[in-house]
């Protein structure tokens, strides 16, 4: 059977304060279009449907609309999982009714052990999980890392393999050897365990979510679909889209279908004058999101205001060569020199004159007295 | 700029914090090792639950101060603590492979032993453990402990709270504080106090110099006013003839000096003259005095000479004596020798006598000792016998021991027998008791039949009463019914009457109408009557008198209606009558029934002996009876229950009896066995005892005897030995003595001979020289010999006399010569003259002295004034220079408000800002940077340390006060972290492997919060444990490792550690 693999929609996400709902709607429409063109039997969404555990009403409306459109209007079966940005509990509302229309949304490990069979393929939908959840599910206190957890889960899954069918895993984690961008938060502000790719060799295809660039991992049958939109400047050069997977062949056939963003994310690296020059044109539409990297190093008054007049949706403004403003006029070592010399320098700096002999003497005797008193003083 | 490296091994790692009765914590243990695995952890909990108290605890344990310093240590004791509870904070940490534990308790009221409350003082205990956990040191004196901690950490409470705990809002304060406040903090951190003191010293010097200058001027003025003037000069000044300026006055004074000096010179000359005169007079007086003296001397000498002549004879005699004594002296040595010899001889004789005496003493003693020895030797065989006895007795010791053992055993066995007997008796008694009880119980049980019977009877009665009650109730019902019916009958009667009336009326009406109708019909008919037709009524065919009606015609319908009405009324009446009859019948019936029932009831009541009750009160009485019966019944039931219990008890007792019997049997057996054992032991004992000697009862006695024997033998041996030794010693002594006697005797003989010779010699000499007899010679010599000590004296006296004579004579001759033609002078005149001259001299001198003094004083003053005026010039220059130096150093000059210390601090602050910029650039994506404000300050308070921020988006620098809440949080964080780094690098204070940020997150929006978390995550890359304290709930979802502070709601809180979601 054929399916479309996408993930990381992050409905409701904001890009430096700009709402992306419109772009997300457009991206969805394109995916929908592709799904129809490619005649897929199902759409797989590998997690992070929402951006926040408690999404805003607009976001909820948006995603609801999309799922209804996809599953009820278009009658497309949907195989989805909750990601680390979703609240598994909230997302699972209505789960029990979904299966009636071929909408499978797994949010627990237990659910994932029972595959969804569609055509010649068994789909194992494994949501984002943490070690303690695996411990609770299997009642095994020795599971301390996600790798251990994965091992237990996989052993259970493989027991349910039907040898006549293909086996596809849909999951949401960090695969070892992948690179990540700035838009993926380190989950627990403390790092994320990685799962080695060879653990997954039993599956014919692994549809992953979590990383936003498909380029993050370069394996034949283990793929990240990437997010449908560019969520950070480090994704500016990427081509976004989805994977079309056909399980009739052995090994499975995987094709990429690109989607064009409604509003692109462009990086402009140039000098201020050039950017403001009306005769200069840039391949940027006013509705695009622009990240500007200035090549100037001097400070420019009202630079943001001015640039915004030309590029209304600036999401970032950085310097290629950041200028260090503050260079100390003297180092601490200089300060710690002989106090009398320090005084001479200071005096000269302030008054423009040198110390007279008398002044030097006075300073010296005062210093001796001050040192003596300091020695006697208790802190 | 590279980030400041940390000194790797100077790290303090917190291990565990335990709070008891501190703040809202009854007992809270925080294990930091669990939190250390995560790079970032959250301390979450509602506002006021006690999060900051954890740091107060840590700060208190280390430094005896709470972190915010708004909460005093003693007030941190839990409000809900009772005097039995002990407030205490214990903090364990590791530093350089050593484990430290500091336990501190604040001053608190505590129950003392024996009741009451006492105030227990603050205490601290610092224990040091080595890497294996052995205690290495313990300090309990507060000062020592505090010093030790300070030395370890190299930071005090303030620095701790700045480096380790960034307290609520405080770290933002540093960002916006005025330069003075910043300076205070930086000064403490970077020890620039020296510069402050230095500047202060110069300022003091400046003030002193100014003061000195002023003093100088005052001095000059004083000197000027102190100048001494002559009268005319003074007047001139007063009247203004002479100007009052210093220089004019100086001129005048100089003039005056010159005049005075002239005067002084004249005086001097005069004085010299008078002085000369005086000298002359002095000399004259001197000469006169001399001459008078010579005269006096001559008289004196003459007198003396006469005296001496008188003494001449005496002196001659003395001379002769001297000659004699000289001779004796020559022979003195011989005499002394003789005396010596005589003395020696006497001594020897004495010695001989003594030795003889001793010898006579010792001889018998020796004899005695010899005898003793013989005696002792004779006793030897007896002694040997004694030894043999002893040996024999020793062999018996063992048997005695056995006897003791057996006695012990016997005693214990006896005890056992006693115990068993006692137990047996007890059991038997118990058995008896149980049986007694059983009998009692049985007696009760026997009553059960009776009780059952009673119960049955009572129940029967109860039923009877119930039935009666029912009946009574029924009767009552019926009575009621009857009454009701009577009423109904009455009602019905009324109805009937009414119906009857109505019927009558209706009937009448009907009749009327009918009549009318008939009449009308008749009329109609009569009208229709045609002759010839038969009258319907009578049949005649003639109708002479047709009826005529004046009655109103009525229709058939109306008649019908009237008939119907009548019929209806009739119907009603009939019905009513019927009903009435019915009711009446019923009534009758009921009455009959009622009467019969009442009779029945009465009969039955009689049966249960209640006939005397009035019918109305029946029910009440019955109820009473029922209650009574119920009570009886319950009592019976109780008793029956009791019987059930007794049955059970009986069973139990039986069981008990059986048990006891068994036990008794067992005990009897045991007793028997024990008794047997006892007898056996007794037999053995007797056997052994028979073998032992009678005189020794116990092993003790035997031992005593053995010892005694031993002692006897030992005594004998000892004595023998000592006697022998003494004898030998004595023998030796005697031998020695004898030989010595002999020697001495020989010596004596020699000396005697020598002395005799010498004496003879001497006598001969004396006789020859003094011409005396032999007998008197000795006396003569001795007398002279005794006077020898006067010889020197005498000789001297004679010589002196002679000399004196010579002297006097010579002197006399001399004086006579000198005074040949002279007279005694008269000193009076000279004296008078001299006195006059002296007075004059004194006077002149005084005059001169005054003048000189005036001159000198004025001279001095003038010099001072001039010198002072000269110096002023120089001093003013100095003052200016010093002033400038001091002002510049203190920031008081016009050039700059920046003092030296501030200048130095600027460098430190810049260094901090550079470090902070590293962070800030990263956190704000290159937008913001710190910049030190180097412009001219408006006031000293704000000079030099104001911080600006450069906004790249605007391309301008502005004050930090203009940052928004979120931005200023990030800026302050960057600054605080940089401050911490620089402090550590500078002061060498150790890293505390933890950083806590208290609140400040609440004012951030989602993006800012993410940025803040991201920044902390970046910061933590330096291997520190970072803890955030916040109530913001979003953080609870994002940070898995949490130290949760849960408030129980009544002022108490507790902590739990969560390490993952």
Automatic annotation (TrEMBL), chain A:
This is Nuclease SbcCD subunit D. PANTHER family: COMPONENT OF ATP-DEPENDENT DSDNA EXONUCLEASE, NUCLEASE SBCCD SUBUNIT D. Residues 262-350 form the Nuclease SbcCD subunit D C-terminal domain. Pfam families: Metallophos (PF00149), SbcD_C (PF12320). SbcCD cleaves DNA hairpin structures. These structures can inhibit DNA replication and are intermediates in certain DNA recombination reactions. The complex acts as a 3'->5' double strand exonuclease that can open hairpins. It also has a 5' single-strand endonuclease activity. The keyword Hydrolase applies. Keywords: DNA recombination, DNA replication, Endonuclease, Exonuclease, Hydrolase, Nuclease.
């Amino acid at each position: 059977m054929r399916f479309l693999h996408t993930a990381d929609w992050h409905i409701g996400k904001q890009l430096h304060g700009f709402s992306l709902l419109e772009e997300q709607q457009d991206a969805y429409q394109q995916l929908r279009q592709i799904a129809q063109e490619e005649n897929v039997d199902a759409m797989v969404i590998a997690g992070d449907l929402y951006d926040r555990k408690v999404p805003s009403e607009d976001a909820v409306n948006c995603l609801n609309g999309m799922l209804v459109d996809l599953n009820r209007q278009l009658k497309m079966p949907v195989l989805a999982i909750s990601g680390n940005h979703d609240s598994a509990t909230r997302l699972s509302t209505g789960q029990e009714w979904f299966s009636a229309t071929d909408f499978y949304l797994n949010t627990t490990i237990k659910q994932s052990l029972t595959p969804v069979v569609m055509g010649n393929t068994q789909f194992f939908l494994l949501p984002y999980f943490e070690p303690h959840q695996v411990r609770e599910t299997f009642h095994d206190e020795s599971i301390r890392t996600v790798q251990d957890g994965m091992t237990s889960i996989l052993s259970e899954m493989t027991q349910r393999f039907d040898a006549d069918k293909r086996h596809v895993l849909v999951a949401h984690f960090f695969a070892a050897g992948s690179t990540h961008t700035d838009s993926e938060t380190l989950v627990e502000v403390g790092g994320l365990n990685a799962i080695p790719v060879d653990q997954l060799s039993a599956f014919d295809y692994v549809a992953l979510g979590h990383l936003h660039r498909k380029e993050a991992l370069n394996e034949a049958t283990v793929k990240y679909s990437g997010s449908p939109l560019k969520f950070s400047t480090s994704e500016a050069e990427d081509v976004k889209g989805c994977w079309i997977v056909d399980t009739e062949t052995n090994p499975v056939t995987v094709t990429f279908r690109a989607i064009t963003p409604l509003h692109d994310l462009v990086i402009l690296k140039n000098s201020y004058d050039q950017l403001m020059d009306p005769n200069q044109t840039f391949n940027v539409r006013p509705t695009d999101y622009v990240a500007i990297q200035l090549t100037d190093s001097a400070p420019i008054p009202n630079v943001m205001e001015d640039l915004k007049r030309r590029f209304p949706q600036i999401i970032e403004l950085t310097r290629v060569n950041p200028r260090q403003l503050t260079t100390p006029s003297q180092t601490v070592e200089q300060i710690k020199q002989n106090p009398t010399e320090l005084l001479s320098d200071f005096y000269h700096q302030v008054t423009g004159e040198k110390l007279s002999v008398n002044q030097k003497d006075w300073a010296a005797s005062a210093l001796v007295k001050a040192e003596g008193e300091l020695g006697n003083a208790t802190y | 700029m590279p980030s400041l490296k940390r000194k790797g091994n100077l790290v303090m790692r917190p291990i565990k914090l335990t709070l008891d009765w501190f703040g809202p914590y009854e007992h809270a243990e925080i294990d930091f090792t669990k939190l250390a695995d995560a790079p970032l952890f959250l301390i979450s909990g509602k506002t006021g639950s006690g999060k900051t108290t954890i740091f107060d605890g840590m700060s208190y344990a280390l430094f005896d101060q709470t972190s915010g310093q708004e909460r005093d240590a003693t007030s941190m004791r839990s409000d809900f603590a009772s005097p039995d509870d002990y407030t205490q904070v214990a903090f364990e940490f590791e530093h350089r492979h050593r484990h430290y534990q500091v336990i501190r308790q604040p001053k608190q009221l505590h129950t003392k032993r024996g009741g009451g409350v006492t105030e227990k003082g603050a205490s601290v205990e610092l224990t040091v453990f080595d890497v294996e956990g052995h205690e290495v040191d313990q300090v309990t004196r507060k000062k020592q402990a505090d010093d030790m901690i300070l030395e370890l950490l190299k930071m005090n409470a303030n620095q701790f709270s700045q480096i380790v705990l960034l307290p609520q809002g405080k770290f933002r304060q540093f960002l916006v504080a005025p330069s003075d406040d910043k300076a205070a903090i930086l000064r403490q951190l970077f020890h620039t106090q020296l510069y402050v003191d230095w500047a202060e010293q110069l300022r003091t010097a400046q003030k002193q110099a100014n003061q000195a200058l002023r003093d100088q001027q005052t001095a000059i003025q004083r000197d000027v006013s102190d100048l001494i003037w002559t009268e005319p000069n003074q007047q001139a000044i007063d009247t203004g003839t002479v100007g009052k300026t210093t220089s004019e006055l100086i001129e005048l004074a100089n003039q005056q000096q010159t005049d005075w000096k002239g005067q002084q010179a004249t005086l001097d000359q005069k004085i010299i003259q008078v002085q000369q005169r005086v000298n002359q007079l002095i000399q004259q007086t001197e000469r006169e005095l001399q001459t008078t003296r010579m005269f006096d001397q001559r008289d004196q000498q003459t007198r003396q000479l006469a005296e001496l002549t008188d003494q001449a004879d005496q002196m001659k005699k003395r001379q002769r004596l001297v000659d004699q004594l000289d001779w004796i002296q020559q022979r003195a040595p011989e005499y002394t020798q003789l005396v010596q010899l005589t003395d020696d001889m006497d001594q020897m004789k004495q010695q001989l006598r003594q030795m003889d005496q001793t010898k006579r003493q010792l001889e018998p003693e020796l004899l005695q000792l010899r005898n003793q020895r013989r005696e002792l030797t004779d006793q030897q065989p007896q002694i040997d016998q004694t030894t043999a006895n002893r040996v024999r007795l020793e062999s018996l010791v063992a048997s005695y021991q056995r006897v003791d053992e057996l006695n012990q055993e016997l005693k214990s066995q006896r005890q056992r027998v006693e115990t068993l007997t006692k137990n047996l008796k007890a059991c038997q008694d118990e058995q008896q008791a149980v049986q007694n009880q059983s009998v009692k119980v049985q007696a009760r049980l026997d009553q059960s039949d009776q009780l059952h019977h009673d119960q049955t009877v009572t129940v029967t009665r109860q039923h009877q009463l119930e039935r009666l009650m029912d009946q009574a109730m029924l009767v009552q019902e019926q009575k009621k019914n009857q009454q009701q019916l009577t009423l109904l009958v009455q009602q019905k009667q009324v109805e009937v009457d009414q119906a009857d009336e109505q019927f009558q009326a209706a009937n009448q009406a009907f009749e009327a109408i009918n009549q009318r109708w008939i009449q009308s019909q008749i009329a109609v008919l009569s009208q229709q009557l045609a002759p010839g037709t038969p009258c319907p009524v009578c049949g005649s065919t003639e109708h002479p008198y047709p009826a005529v009606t004046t009655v109103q015609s009525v229709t058939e319908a109306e008649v019908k209606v009237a008939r119907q009405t009548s019929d209806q009324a009739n119907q009603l009446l009939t019905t009513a009558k019927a009903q009435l009859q019915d009711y009446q019948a019923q009534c009758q019936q009921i009455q009959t029934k009622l009467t019969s029932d009442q009779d029945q009831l009465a009969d039955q009541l009689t049966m249960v002996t209640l006939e005397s009750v009035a019918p109305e009160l029946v029910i009440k009485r019955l109820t009473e009876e029922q209650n009574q019966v119920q009570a009886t019944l319950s009592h019976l039931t109780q008793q029956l229950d009791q019987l059930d219990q007794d049955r059970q008890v009986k069973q139990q007792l039986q069981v008990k009896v059986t048990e006891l019997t068994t036990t008794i049997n067992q005990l009897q057996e045991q007793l028997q066995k024990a008794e047997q054992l006892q007898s056996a032991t007794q037999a053995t004992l007797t056997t052994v005892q028979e073998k032992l000697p009678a005189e020794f009862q116990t092993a003790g006695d035997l031992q005593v005897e053995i010892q005694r024997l031993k002692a006897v033998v030992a005594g004998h041996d000892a004595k023998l030995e000592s006697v022998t030794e003494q004898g030998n010693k004595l023998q030796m002594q005697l031998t020695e003595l004898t030989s010595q006697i002999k020697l001495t005797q020989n010596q004596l003989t020699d000396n005697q001979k020598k002395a005799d010779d010498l004496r003879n010699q001497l006598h001969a000499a004396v006789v020859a020289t003094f011409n005396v007899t032999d007998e008197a010679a000795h006396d003569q010599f001795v007398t002279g010999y005794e006077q020898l000590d006067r010889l020197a004296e005498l000789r001297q006296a004679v010589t002196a006399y002679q000399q004196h004579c010579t002297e006097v004579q010579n002197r006399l001759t001399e004086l006579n010569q000198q005074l040949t033609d002279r007279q005694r002078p008269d000193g009076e005149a000279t004296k008078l003259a001299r006195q006059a001259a002296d007075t004059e001299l004194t006077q002149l001198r005084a005059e001169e002295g005054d003048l000189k003094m005036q001159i000198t004083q004025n001279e001095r003053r003038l010099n001072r004034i001039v010198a002072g005026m000269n110096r002023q010039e120089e001093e003013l220059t100095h003052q200016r220079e010093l002033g400038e130096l001091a002002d510049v150093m203190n920031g008081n000059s016009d050039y700059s408000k920046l003092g030296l210390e501030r200048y130095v601090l600027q460098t430190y602050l810049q260094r901090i800002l550079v470090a902070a910029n590293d962070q800030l650039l990263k956190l704000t994506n290159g937008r913001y940077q710190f910049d030190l404000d180097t412009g001219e300050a408006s006031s000293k308070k704000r000079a030099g340390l104001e911080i600006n921020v450069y906004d790249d988006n605007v391309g301008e620098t502005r004050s930090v006060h203009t940052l928004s809440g979120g931005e200023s949080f990030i800026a302050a964080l960057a600054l605080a972290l940089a401050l911490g780094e620089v402090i550590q690098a500078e002061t060498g204070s150790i890293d505390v492997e933890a950083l806590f940020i208290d609140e400040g997150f609440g004012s951030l929006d989602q993006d800012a919060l993410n940025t803040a978390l991201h920044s902390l995550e970046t910061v933590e890359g330096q291997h520190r444990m970072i803890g955030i304290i916040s109530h913001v709930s979003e953080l609870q979802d994002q940070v898995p490792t949490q130290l949760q502070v849960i408030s129980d709601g009544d002022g108490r809180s507790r902590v739990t550690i969560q390490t993952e979601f």
